[in-house]
Amino acid sequence: MLVKLFGKSLEELKNIALELGLPAYAGKQLAEWIYRKGIAGFDGMTNLSKKARALLASRYELGLHEPLDVQESADGTKKYLFQGTPGKFIETAYIPEGERGTVCVSSQVGCKMGCLFCMTGKQGFQGNLSAGEILNQYRSIPEWKQLTNIVYMGMGEPLDNLHEVLKSLEILTSPWGFALSPRRITVSTIGITPAMLEFLNKSEVHLAVSLHSPFEEERRKLIPVQQVYPFREVLDEIRSWDFGRQRRVSFEYILFKGYNDTPAHVNELSRILQGIRCRINLIRFHPIPDTLLESPDEAAMQQFRDRINAKGITTTIRASRGQDIQAACGLLSTKKLLQNG
Ligand code: SF4
Q1: Whole-model pTM?
Q2: 124 in the Ramachandran plot: left (φ > 0), alpha (ψ -120 to 50) or beta?
Q3: From atom 4 of ligand 1, which residue's Cα is the shortest distance away?
Q4: How far apart are the CA of 122 and the centre of ligand 1, in A?
């Protein structure tokens, strides 16, 4: 079986070059061709000899994969489905917004965390994605050259697949890789404290933490991992971390009608976030099958936003995109699994 080159680090590519009897600098040339120059096959690697290219092709493949399927929303949002290892499907969303183009990548197939409101959580855990599988979602959508932002907010908990996520971030931001600014990338987590500290140490990209309630017991019902990694611990670590001027921390807050949208929640949120330079993104809940949770109406969401803003925390409502294509993570791949099952 041919080994995939896409998703390999510079160190790994240098070793491959040496194994093939090429000089180590050929590893850097390979990295440049694969990532920044974005070639689709070995033939395009014109600064490698014909012999070297033939040798490469005998043992390796580039390892890029086109999406299997795409659904497009009336608002331009697209949801791509990629084939993972057999029987596993990876979802990726592309979200155009004026000058911006954002890709939302998955880091796992399914998820172990079992959050109450999440379709991916209901699928259970099926596997981690490799750095190559994560990056392929960025590189293999037709819009990849127009992308301005990458968010790790698709299927899975990125910090539960820390090694591959960090490797993918290294490839995205290194000069020998895609050379993207870390300021264009955000990783979202439900707050796994030890992994979050390692992530903060080893990368420079933005952090988004899913909060969804400022009350412990209530949050535990929504996000069971609260029991193991209480948000107070997560917030203490964030409070003591030096994010510098450029790196951003934000909190994600899905609003559930009559559950986490009261004035008491506003007061408690502003209390627990004291001393943290951050913003809050309010997210509209898109109902999933078999849940009693509902979204408040637009006026109630705006009122909640205004109340937190009045407390001095910048808060915005994230625009709902792709509702008509069921952009809620996990729905598309669950359907595909059912079809194939
Ligand atoms: S919300 Fe995120 S962490 Fe929770 S089950 Fe869904 S994918 Fe996993």
Answers
A1: 0.94
A2: left
A3: 115
A4: 9
